[in-house]
Amino acid sequence: MGLLKQPDQDKIIQLCDTLVSQLPDEKCTLLGESKGDNDKIIKLFIRKTDRKEFDIFTELEFFLFANDTLDVTFSHQNLLFPSTSQIAELVRKVVNRMGKDDDGKGYLKESEENKIQDKSWAGRSWQRKAALPVSIYIDQEDDNFAGNLCMDIQRISKR
What we know:
Elements: H1 9-20, E1 28-35, E2 41-53, E3 57-64, E4 69-75, H2 84-98, H3 110-117, E5 124-126, E6 134-138, E7 149-157
Antiparallel strand pairs: 1-2, 2-3, 3-4, 4-7, 5-6, 6-7
């Protein structure tokens, strides 16, 4: 049985099914719990990966909601920032599966590659066009991920 029930299941399932369908596992560390809507518990976990997911990411942070759905942030926690070609390949994989992003952009352009190099790239988002929202960006705000490449995948159903 697949991880997602959304109509575009086949577009993104190959990117995250194996890893996400197993979460949380024994390699996850519970960072905390909070109450969400209707006082239901939301658990925050972190997990270091044994290998680089998507050839880039070394860590993931995820929220497990009471309705058994996940919001996952893949991040690159390493002194070496991913190369522009690695990020271009990640965007290419997502574009090939999800289509153009919310702004109608496809593969990376040279102007974006220059912004990636100086870590000022705004990123890409597939929030409005997909049942499974995906974002790729350089985090500029979160103390834990600041300056790191991140990819968010939201509302993944484990059922």
